[in-house]
Amino acid sequence: xxxxxxxxxxxxxxxxxxxxxxxxxxxxxxxxxxxxxxxxxxxxxxxxxxxxxxxxxxxxxxxxxxxxxxxxxxxxxxxxxxxxxxxxxxxxxxxxxxxxxxxxxxxxxxxxxxxxxxxxxxxxxxxxxxxxxxxxxxxxxxxxxxxxxxxxxxxxxxxxxxxxxxxxxxxxxxxxxxxxxxxxxxxxxxxxxxxxxxxxxxxxxxxxxxxxxxxxxxxxxxxxxxxxxxxxxxxxxxxxxxxxxxxxxxxxxxxxxxxxxxxxxxxxxxxxxxxxxxxxxxxxxxxxxxxxxxxxxxxxxxxxxxxxxxxxxxxxxxxxxxxxxxxxxxxxxxxxxxxxxxxxxxxxxxxxxxxxxxxxxxxxxxxxxxxxx
Length: 373
Fold this sequence. Notes:
The protein is an alpha/beta fold. Helix content is 50%, strand content 6%.
C-alpha cells in the first residue's frame, strides 16, 4: 500500500495505481477504505466494472441491501451498448438472489440464456435404446491392467457439475491432460461428434474404428500414449466401445446434487457449447443424461469413478485433494480460486424449490438413484 501511495504521488490520478489501491484494501478486508478507493476509480473511469462491483458488494453487505438493486438498475439504464447491458444482468440476478427474490432472479437468468441461444449448439440427445448395454463378463468397476499400454482416462461432467474446475486443476498439474475438445482446432475424431452413438447402433462404424481414429490423433495432440481426455459429451454406447478396444480406460465423472447442477447451469452457464432453451427443457435433458450415468454406475458398464464435488465445489484445495484421492495421484493445491462468480454452496437449490418446483421434481428420482436425498 505504501508503494501505491508513492506511485500516486509520482503520477497523480493514475488509473492503474487507483485500481491497485482498491484491490489491496479489498484483500485486506478494509471495506470502507476499499469502497472509497472504488469511488475514486469511478471518478476517473465511470464505467469501471470492477469498481462498480465493489460498491455493489458493499451495498449488499450494508444496512440497506436494496440500495444494490437501485445501483444496478441505474447502471442498466445508462448502459452504452447491448454488450454492457448483458454484462450487467448477472449482477442484477445476484442482487435479487441476495434479497431472497427467487422468481425475479430466475427471470433474469432465463433472459440471459435466451440472449445467447443463437450462438450455442442444441443439446446432444441420447440414442434410443430397447435394452441397456450389458457389461462384459467379469468386468465391472475396475479397469483392466493391460501390459505395455499407457494409462488412459476420460473426464466428463454435465452442465452445473463444475467439471471445468477439475479441468483447471488437471491442466496445471497433469502433462497428459487435454482440454482441446473445448477449443477451436479440436480433434476430429469420433469422440468429438455426437452422431457417433447413432453410427455405432447403425453399424456405420465400429468400436475398433472409433478407438483407432482417436489414437491416430495422439501425435498431433502431443500425446505419446498416456492421456486424460476431457470429453464434451457422453453416451453409454461408448462404454462398450472402450471395454472392447481400450479396457485400460477409466471414466472420471464430476457430479453434484442434480438440483444444484440445474440451478448452477441456470445462474452461471457452462463451459460447454450447449444452449439452455428453457429451464424445463434443461431439467428433462439433464435427468436423461444423469439416468445414463446412474445405469453406468449401477451396472458397472466400464471402469469409472464418480467425483462428488458437493462439499468441495467452492474450495480449490479440497477439490484438488478429492481429485487426487480418486485418481490415486498426488496433485498440488491450485494457487487460487477460479475466476468468475463463486458457485452456490451445497443444497442451495432449496432456496428455489418453490419457483422451480416442476424442474426439481423431474430431477429428484435420478438424484435419489445417485445417492442424494
